[in-house]
């Protein structure tokens, strides 16, 4: 008998440890697969040589469970990678990143890097994710070429060569990953079989508990204030996706207001209320 009690207790403990996963209809959860396949096909130039064939990469670099898509037309020096993210049910084009047909990802800071080197001139821009868009966080440029004027700039401001080198050696200690040329454009298997780990954040549920309520509105306002002060919301990408309730790629008081009005409606007994109905 004791043994059975122990087994029941263990089973209960296991049940409590199993994470809650939001079950979404298969079609909605997989919409990104259809759209990413369409995008890759539409960008395929049909080139057959190694250096001029269209390839792509998939990686969940913002950490919301659904991968970002990087499409590369070739590995030529001048080739740009097109970068897409999946945001609130849509593929969002983030821009073209330069690096010989690949995109550099700084895994230490979570930033994307676009850089270009030509005849002694170097330009690079760093970008952070914010609500399904990119914001520039850093720019570096220099001229080491034989022809003067030589210059070294951080965020457009002239600095000394040693200061510039010091900054670069700090950046060189980061961990970098290259994306863009992992799979042939004709191979759709990686898109079809990509394992989604944490499907789509529930809109408005910023603290990722069981309800959309005033606590979420508070998190949105704190995130917005933090962003105003530091250019970081302090929220994960999944939380930012949930917090940008009106889908305008900003987290601010407008989003918090929608959550509060919705929560008040639910609180007053409006059982059929949907957050979507309060978005203006
Ligand atoms: Ca919540
Ligand atoms: Ca918003």
Strand order of the main beta sheet, please? 10-9-8-7-6-5-11
Ions, cofactors and other bound molecules: calcium ion
Assembly type of the chains comes to single chain
The sequence of SSEs as H and E is HHHEEEEEEEEEEHEEHHHH
CA radius of gyration is 23 Å
Average residue pLDDT? 87
Poorly predicted regions are 7-25
What overall geometry do the principal axes of the alpha carbons give?
A: flat
Helical stretch tally: 8
Largest sheet geometry:
7 strands, antiparallel
Our estimate of the beta-strand percent is: 25-35%
SSE arrangement:
Layout: H1 2-17, H2 26-29, H3 31-43, E1 55-59, E2 68-72, E3 80-87, E4 90-98, E5 103-106, E6 111-118, E7 121-130, E8 133-143, E9 151-154, E10 157-158, H4 161-172, E11 176-179, E12 183-184, H5 189-193, H6 214-230, H7 237-243, H8 253-267
Antiparallel strand pairs: 1-2, 1-12, 2-3, 3-4, 5-6, 5-11, 6-7, 7-8, 8-9, 9-10
Bound molecules: calcium ion (CA) (2 copies).
């Amino acid at each position: 008998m004791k043994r059975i009690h122990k087994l029941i207790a263990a089973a209960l403990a296991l049940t409590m440890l199993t994470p809650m996963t939001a079950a979404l209809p298969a079609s909605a959860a997989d919409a990104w697969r259809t759209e990413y396949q369409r995008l890759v096909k539409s960008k395929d130039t049909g080139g057959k040589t190694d250096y001029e064939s269209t390839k792509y990469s998939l990686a969940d670099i913002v950490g919301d469970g659904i991968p970002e898509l990087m499409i590369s037309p070739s590995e030529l020096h001048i080739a740009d990678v097109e970068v897409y993210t999946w945001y609130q049910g849509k593929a969002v084009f983030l821009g073209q990143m330069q690096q010989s047909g690949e995109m550099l990802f700084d895994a230490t800071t979570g930033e994307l890097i676009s850089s270009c080197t030509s005849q002694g001139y170097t330009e690079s821009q760093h970008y952070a994710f914010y609500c399904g868009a990119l914001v520039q966080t850093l720019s570096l440029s220099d001229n080491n070429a034989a022809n003067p004027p030589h210059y070294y700039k951080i965020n457009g401001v002239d600095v000394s060569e040693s200061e510039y080198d010091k900054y670069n050696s700090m950046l060189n200690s980061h961990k970098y990953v290259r994306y863009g040329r992992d799979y042939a454009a004709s191979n759709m298997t990686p898109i079809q079989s990509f394992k989604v780990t944490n499907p789509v954040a529930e809109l408005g549920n910023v603290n990722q508990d069981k309800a959309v309520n005033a606590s979420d509105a508070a998190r949105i306002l704190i995130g917005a204030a933090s962003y105003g002060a530091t250019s970081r919301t302090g929220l994960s990408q999944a939380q930012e996706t949930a917090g940008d309730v009106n889908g305008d790629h900003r987290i601010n008081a407008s989003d918090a207001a929608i959550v509060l009005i919705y929560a008040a409606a639910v609180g007053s007994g409006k059982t059929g209320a949907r957050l979507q109905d309060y978005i203006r």
